[in-house]
Amino acid sequence: MARLLLSVLVVANVVSALAVVEARHQHRQLFVQLSRLERARDELNIEFGRLQLEQATWAESNRIDQVARDRLGMKFPEGVETVVIRP
């Protein structure tokens, strides 16, 4: 009887140890994945900041005015070209 109980306890101890090893291995893998994802997040945040700055630069009114004049040949109408329509 004592021998059977001792055998069961040894087997339970080995199974428990293997479960701890598996849990620690899984923890390490998940930690590596978390580190990778955090690094990717940081890179995306940097890229997003750069794109916001670029968008702000392209959307400046001086830039829009310059492109309208140079590429599209647009200009402000002169006094004689302005027509006022009254209801």
TrEMBL record:
One Pfam family, short name: FtsL
Primary localization: membrane
Signal peptide: 1-19
Coiled-coil intervals, chain numbering: 27-54
InterPro entries listed in its UniProt record: Cell_div_FtsL
Keyword Translocase: no
GO BP annotations, alphabetical order: cell division
HAMAP family linked: FtsL
Family from the record: Belongs to the FtsL family.
Protein name: Cell division protein FtsL
